[in-house]
Design a protein that fits this description.
Helix 2 packs across helix 4. The radius of gyration is 20 Å and the shape is globular. The protein is 36% helix and 26% strand. It folds into 2 domains: 91 residues, no CATH class; 63 residues, no CATH class. The longest helix is centred in the C-terminal third of the chain and has 23 residues.
Length: 182
Amino acid sequence: MAKLDEFLPDVLPEVPDCPVQIAERALLQSARDFCMETWAWEEPVLSKTAEPEEEAHEIPEPFDGEIIAISSVEVDGHSVPFVWPLRDELQARGQGELVARGALQPTLRDTDLPDVLAMHYSEAITAGAKYRLMRMPGVAWSNPDMAMFYQREFQQHVARARVERARHHTPEPQTVKPVRFV
């Protein structure tokens, strides 16, 4: 986990006189927005042995963040259809080892961010924080022109992260070998 104050050297020089608490709050909200738009922070939220007659599975509250969505459910390594009607319950059928992966976001009371966000998306999070801070009216660090610049930068990072997720975070080109029809 990376502390929010580790990101401050990348933010505070461009927003002079901004209090640290306000900058940290902007960083946290930027990270939440980034996660909501990209599902960049994904991890297993439920792992258990499912019985054949069991359809509803209680999802425990994650200790690190809030669940945005359930992204996939597998039983014994095979993808299964599922329904997520309630925040704390998942409906899926199957017998065997059930693993549900969820997209997470930091909570509003967090003071640190998960390593996956800090290591791979720090530029996106700082750009989003700068955008949030610079668009504030009536403060010394307000700068609408630069706010728009950082908003575009944040959106470019969001688009890039969405593509990475769609490609399953692999650098290899997603190609299919042509098959000759006879």
